[in-house]
Amino acid sequence: MTLSKEDREALANRGKTEEQLERELKMLSEGFPMLKVEAPATPGHGISLLTPTIEASSMSIWEQFLSAGGKVVKFVPASGAASRMFKNLFAFLNGESSKPNDDFMRLFFDRIEDFAFFRWLNMVCIENYGKSVDTLKKENRYKDIVESLLTKTGMNYGALPKALLQFHKTFGFTRTPVEEHLLEGAATAAGRDGKVRVHFTVSDDHMPLAKMKVEECSGFLSHECGKEFEVTFSTQKPSTDTVAALPDGTPYREKGELFFRPGGHGALIENLNEIDADVIFVKNIDNIVPDSRRDSTIRYKKVLGGILVGVRQTIDKYCRRLQDQDVATSELDEMLKFLRTVLCVTHDNADSMTPEEKKAYLFGKFNRPVRVCGMVRNEGEPGGGPYLAYNPDGTVSPQILESVQLDTEKPEVKDMMAKATHFNPVDLVCSIRDYKGRKFDLRKYVDPATGFISSKSREGVEILALELPGLWNGAMSDWNTVFIEVPADTFNPVKTVNDLLRPAHQPEKKPIKDES
Predict the structure, then answer these.
(1) Where in the chain are the domains?
(2) Which residues pair with 12 in a beta bridge?
(3) What's the gap between Cα 288 and its chain centre?
(4) Residue range 269-296, pLDDT digits in tens
(5) CA–CA separation, 271 vs 273, rounded Å?
(6) Which of 42, 178, 219, 319 has the fewest CB atoms in 10 Å of its CB?
(7) Whole-number pLDDT of residue 479
(8) Tens digit of each residue's pLDDT (9 = 90 or more) over 327-355
């Protein structure tokens, strides 16, 4: 491919090389291999179940880790706009019907006063039309209400990020996901120094508003919970944008210029790699609940954190021991058992190795980042799931996969997917330091062959978009992984606006006390 001077300048402005461009076009042309999977991860076969004893000991380990000065950062991907959350409302606004014509829209209007943003919406309607939401409903002016919520003439919720929407009511106030994540961090990850370190990834467009929100709320919330917030931000790096192509594999251009798209949440491995911490919690911006519903979340955050610390301590002990000359056969067998049963790395040929070969094999498997992932029972929620997948060296290890990575045309793969019991709620606790306390370069543990291609429409033209290996999928492919079953009530995502009407996002109703 011959590049023009303008093409080279466009690459340089993004921090990309010509070699990267060629690789991306090759990927778009050739596609990615489907992953070979042994089985879905299920309880007792890749997913560990908790007992009261394990929960109690894990929480104790976590509290000890914090008391000893362990540094924790809560990493929250919060880049996306909320437009998909309001997809049904946009369809209604742009449709022909002037009244709610499906169950979704009827529920939205029937319970509109239950949304945390209702009071503001009502004020905007009065300002725009001189009439309240209730009056507009009686006059069948439903589209005026939706327009006041979504567009620039009103609250502009259709263009804001989820992070800044009013999600919850609490004591006469409302809270956004930003505020709820700060408070969740205060309850689970405050350091010995009393600081709560939270990092949000946001888009360039939304950065000023996000910083303004944190500046506005952090002082009040700090006073409320008795902790000090240390909040940082980053944006997805332009160098992780990927080129788009036409179906014939040639670059797609607009006004003669190469067209780039964000490479998906997998690009955030670059952001995660810049975090300096002993432990990092990773959780999506929309999976958050109000104070009254947070007890279970707090408990299992601590449990997952304690399990991670325990696993990391064992791995570090083994790595240090493997550096010695005189490692007994019984010790190597103990380490191999841990690798196979706790980290679920199997299908090796270690039993036929010499002691020196076994030492090298074990050290290579142990000395890498570690993540403990909460998994919930699959009750129909969308999302990727836990599987036991083959690695390039022939071993099998736990992986979080999306359906697009699996060859669903094969009957045996469809059968595996049908037998899957859990899915991924994106509730991760990560250890990114080695046994000497040095940070891993997380970019070295990405499997570049686990990206995928999606078909998009751009101004009426079909284009191929390249998605980088997902942050918790292929971007963490070569991490050591432990799957733990956690209760479903720790997973409360908001994918559509009506999800805010679920009990988990509504104020808890206290029973009325009978004084008679």
Answers:
(1) 36-73+243-255+279-505, 84-159
(2) none
(3) 12
(4) 999 999 999 999 999 999 999 999 999 9
(5) 5
(6) 219
(7) 98
(8) 999 999 999 999 999 999 999 999 999 99
By DSSP bridging, strand 228-234 and strand 195-201 are parallel
SS3 of 49, please? Answer: coil
Angle value at C-alpha 103, between 101 and 107, nearest 5 degrees: 105
- Residue 144 burial by CB count (10 A; 0-12/13-18/19+): exposed, middle or buried? buried
What's the rounded Cα separation, in Å, for the pair 215 and 20? 39
Question: Is the pLDDT assigned to residue 160 strictly greater than 60?
Answer: yes
According to DSSP, the β-strands at 370-377 and 480-485 are: parallel
Distance CA 496, CA 455 (A): 23
| pLDDT over threshold 60, residue 516 | no
How many CA atoms lie less than 13 Å away from 57 in the CB half-sphere?
Answer: 9
281: which strand partners?
Answer: 74, 429
Show Cβ contacts of residue 343 under 8 Å, excluding neighbours closer than 6 positions. 311, 365, 397, 398, 480, 481, 482
Q: Are 339 and 365 in contact (CB under 8 A)?
A: yes
> Rg of the chain over CA atoms, in angstroms?
25
User: Distance between CA atoms of 10 and 440, rounded to whole angstroms?
Assistant: 31
Phi, psi of 260 (to 5 degrees): -115, 150
Tokens, residue 45: 């076969």
What pLDDT, in 10s, does the model give residues 432-479? 999 999 999 999 999 998 998 988 888 888 999 999 999 999 999 999
pTM: 0.93
**CB of 3 within 8 A of CB of 18?**
yes
Give first-to-last CA distance, the chain, whole Å: 85
The phi, psi pair for 452, rounded to 5°, reads -155, 165
* Three-class secondary structure of residue 455 per DSSP: strand
Cα(127)–Cα(485) distance, integer angstroms? 49
228, 208, 209: which is closest to 218 by C-alpha? Answer: 228
Contacts of residue 473, defined as CB under 8 A and 6 or more positions apart, other chains included, come to 266, 384, 399, 400, 401, 402, 405, 450
pLDDT digits 0-9 by tens, 369-381? 999 999 999 876 6
